[in-house]
Amino acid sequence: MISNERSSFGNRRYGAQKPQVNEETIRSDKVQIERKTFLFTLKENPRGRFLRITEDVGGRRDSIIIPAPGLEDFKKLLDEMVKAANETPPPKSQDTQD
């Protein structure tokens, strides 16, 4: 085995193209928060619907995909995090402590 090949990828070679999957965009929107842009895209393919959240920071992109059946649980957890962020006071900085 060549050092840059991994057996977990089967017969695929490094840099090989993934097969193209037909995806339909249902809805897309974006939000700018500080220096980050988040793109939310609801899509559908033969396996089902999913939400792709892409973070773009200075041209570098990272994405997560949430299957549609998990969106309600994701929303509940996100709502709880927003609530906690608003209720919990930020820690005091070292400069202001006596």
Record the SSE blueprint.
Blueprint: E1 24-33, E2 36-45, E3 48-57, E4 60-67, H1 71-87
Antiparallel strand pairs: 1-2, 2-3, 3-4
Description of the structure:
This protein has a four-stranded antiparallel sheet, with no helix packed on it. The chain has one helix spanning 71-87; strands spanning 24-33, 36-45, 48-57, 60-67. A hairpin with a 2-residue loop joins strand 3 and strand 4 (60-67). By secondary structure, the chain is of the alpha+beta class. Helix content is 17%, strand content 39%. It is extended, with a radius of gyration of 20 Å.
**What general outline do the C-alpha atoms trace?**
extended
Low-confidence stretches: 1-7
Q: Report the radius of gyration as a whole number of Å.
A: 20 Å
Overall number of strands: 4
Largest sheet: 4 strands, antiparallel
Spatially, the strands of the biggest sheet line up as: 1-2-3-4
Oligomer: single chain
Helix content: 10-25%
Order of helices and strands: EEEEH
The overall average pLDDT, rounded, is 85
Number of helices: 1
What is the strand content? 35-45%
Task: Write out key terms for the chains shown.
alpha+beta, 98 residues, disordered N terminus
